[in-house]
Specification:
heterodimer, A: alpha+beta, Aldehyde Ferredoxin Oxidoreductase,  A, domain 1, Aldehyde Ferredoxin Oxidoreductase Protein, subunit A, domain 2, six-stranded mixed sheet, four-stranded mixed sheet, B: alpha+beta, Ubiquitin-like (UB roll)
């Protein structure tokens, strides 16, 4: 059996040079694929101090070794780069079909370098790659862009593109494929900085597996397990459109820029209310869940608004930060973000921040072109999305994200900026789910909910052990969640699908896809996750990050949470230093948060030692 | 046969913050029935009209998922049952 390590397409936009290469077996063994390859190539190829929006930054698109096969829910794909929002390692995950299409073109990695003089897009086929003019689509939204590319290259084409927000270098612009987004960290901004509008792949189904017979037997077994699995059936029915029912009930739905953990009259936001506006389902390649719930607004000022989504994070982003219970506004806002190519989480969080600046008198009507940013009013929120995407008026400032807005405004506004490492916090209140909060604090990318999701705190999951959600002592849980997420993102398996009862097959599928037997060993997969996380940490250390950047915002650490009718009133995250000491010790890091020599050698990352000066 | 049933955060909100309860029973179903006898407000959250667990609820015995047919799974004295909402995330 021949080992299949996956292939790389390297495109230099400055020189026009295109090349294909195979991933060396040593890298495949140590990093498996997907996000593993992402951090390895980013670390090796991005020098410290590289300007995220400069020619030398790179965009790396990654499909996993399982993508495009009959296995279910494994065709998601990832974008890695140095983030223009945070300056740290960036990883953003996307759905739809693009990951499968990468594999059909026999690619697992697309490394995009340099910058074109004029707007361009990359068109890839299994045998070729061209850099073509994007003159016709520059300025177009993501829907128009994808439709135009399909008209040019045919129905067997799938696209990852940016919208106007990416072109305007909004710091949290997304990469959009169909109606799914690689939203976080400003990956679309980096594409925009390269004058790169899109990457389009035209291909038909083709498998590239080391051991297809074994693989397909395992995949059939997976299908049989999933079809009756309760978690799968629940996800198929609801997607994530009812998570707010739980987070509001337990007081961890961030409201009014993270001052409250429960929204007044939150029942108006219930999953059942969104269901009344549901008109269909959409899904990713080879996934029967079709968890993208499509909504259409049929009356009122947002009549005609139509979106695949919002899902939980976006429901929150356009309700909680401004304390609006208007679900029609959230559907419109979600649609606009997808059209313009904006990260919904950073957009909603930044708008909630602007509302608080307005409340505190740090900005006023003359700054907002007359918009009254008063909590509960959704119309200004919807208006601000367009302003941000096109950098119009105050949108030009808000397009920089909360960290930079606070730095530019000064006036003490930094205490209202709810981010970690510059990445805006998502839809779980850290004071009511502290392992989730400490995941925000220590995640390589900044405040990401899905970098080590604390299902123990939020849903009562009892493995590897149950937690008290107010306990700040669960460093082991945070590490377990982060490492297992990293390992799963080698796949790249959908975060939801990991709970559908087939986890025992994951390593076997990887082994059959690659032809590398050691992937069958769960302990080895955990080691790879640990290796990835440590290399990401080294990437960040090399860029100047350290312990000082591993703290939650002051508000979370000093202001008591108000939970209205829920448990948790008065909670703060008050033991950050004790937590970090314990977390660093368990990770094998120094007191400053730097991986130590023993740890790096244990993970075969010896070459990193010289870079981070342990 | 005392068994500890752990109640997830969202259901604790219905039972004045109680996070665990000791019950008697030799199978998960018996244990949960005793719990809902004490806290009837939990019954519609856990069971459908046919008496089956509602979609979206997972049962773990100690750390092992009790799927499939969780209500029939036997338990021993000292076991811990965990009720968990199936991870929805977002």
């Amino acid at each position: 059996m021949e080992v299949n390590t996956g292939k790389i397409l390297r495109v230099n936009l400055s020189t026009g040079k295109v090349s294909r290469e195979s991933v060396p077996e040593s890298i495949a063994t140590d990093f498996i694929g997907g996000r593993g390859y992402g951090v390895k190539y980013l670390y090796d190829e991005i020098a410290p101090g590289t300007d995220p929006l400069g020619e030398k930054n790179k965009v790396i698109m990654l499909a996993g070794p399982l993508a495009g096969t009959m296995a279910q829910a494994v065709s998601r794909w990832i974008v890695c780069t140095r983030s223009p929002l945070t300056g740290a390692f960036a990883r953003s995950v996307c759905g739809a079909d693009f990951g499968a299409w990468m594999r059909f073109a026999d690619l697992e990695v697309i490394i995009i370098e340099g910058k074109t003089e004029k707007p361009a897009y990359i068109h890839i086929t299994p045998d070729g790659c061209e850099i073509l003019s994007a003159k016709e689509i520059w300025g177009k939204d993501t829907k128009e862009t994808q439709a135009w590319l399909n008209s040019q290259h045919g129905k067997n084409t799938r696209t990852a593109c940016i919208g106007p927000a990416g072109e305007k270098l909004v710091k949290y612009a997304a990469v959009v494929s169909d109606r799914r987004t690689a939203g976080r960290c400003g990956t679309g901004t980096v594409m925009g900085s390269k004058n790169l509008k899109a990457v389009a792949i035209t291909a038909t189904r083709a498998l590239h597996l080391a051991d297809p017979d074994t693989y397909n037997t395992l995949a059939r077994e997976q299908v049989n397990i999933i079809k009756d699995n309760d978690a799968f059936l629940n996800h198929k029915e609801w997607g994530t459109t009812s998570t707010q029912d739980i987070t509001n009930t337990i007081g961890i739905y961030p409201v009014r820029n993270f001052r409250y953990g429960q929204q007044v009259d939150y029942q108006k936001l219930a999953g059942a209310e969104y269901r009344k506006l549901r008109v269909g389902d959409m899904g990713c390649y080879s996934c029967p869940a079709r968890c993208g719930k499509v909504h259409t607004v049929t009356s009122g000022i947002y009549k005609g608004a139509h979106s695949e989504g919002p899902e939980y994070e976006s429901i929150w982003a356009f309700t909680g930060p401004i304390e609006s219970n208007n679900i029609e506004a959230s559907i419109r806002a979600d649609q606009l973000c997808d059209d313009y190519g904006l990260d919904t989480i950073s957009t909603g969080n930044t708008i909630g921040f602007a509302y608080e600046l307005y409340e505190k008198g740090l900005i006023n009507k003359s700054d907002t072109s007359g918009l009254e940013l008063i909590y509960g009013r959704h119309e200004p929120m919807v208006a601000l999305i367009k302003k941000i995407a096109l950098r119009e008026g105050i949108g030009d400032l808000l397009a920089e994200g909360t960290m930079r807005v606070a730095a530019k405004l000064d006036k003490g506004s930094d205490v209202y900026a709810m981010n970690v490492k510059g990445l805006e916090m998502p839809a779980y209140e850290p004071r009511g789910a502290k392992s989730q909060g400490y995941n925000y604090a220590t995640a390589s990318v900044g405040a990401s909910h899905c970098y080590g999701y604390a299902a123990q705190d939020i849903f009562g999951a009892p493995f590897p052990h149950p937690t008290d959600r107010f306990d700040e002592g669960n460093a082991d849980i945070v590490i377990f969640n982060q490492n297992s997420t990293a390992s799963n993102e080698c796949g790249v398996i959908c975060a939801f699908a990991g709970g559908w009862g087939w986890a025992q097959l994951y390593g076997k599928l990887l082994a059959a896809a690659r032809g590398i037997d050691k992937f069958k060993d769960d302990a080895y997969l955990a080691e790879v996750g640990d290796r990835m996380f440590n290399l990401e940490r080294a990437f960040n250390i090399r860029q100047g990050f350290g312990r000082k950047d591993d703290y939650l915002p002051d508000r979370i650490r000093t202001e008591p949470l108000h939970t209205r009718e829920a448990k948790g009133e008065g909670q703060i995250v008050g033991h950050s230093d004790e937590f970090l000491d314990k977390y660093y010790e368990l990770r094998g890091w120094t007191k400053d948060g730097v991986p130590n020599e023993k740890k790096l050698k244990e993970l075969r990352l010896d070459s990193v030692l010289k870079d981070i000066k342990v | 046969m005392t068994v500890e049933v752990n109640i997830p955060p969202v259901l604790q909100a219905l039972v004045n913050g109680v996070n665990r309860i000791n019950v008697e029973g030799s199978a998960v179903g018996e244990c949960l029935n005793e719990m809902v006898a004490k806290y009837p407000q939990l019954k519609p959250k856990l069971f459908n009209k046919r008496g089956n667990l509602r979609k979206g609820i997972s049962i773990f015995i100690n750390k092992e998922n009790a799927f499939p047919e969780p209500l029939l799974k036997p338990v021993r004295p000292g076991d811990k049952i965990y009720i968990s909402h199936i991870v929805l995330g977002g």
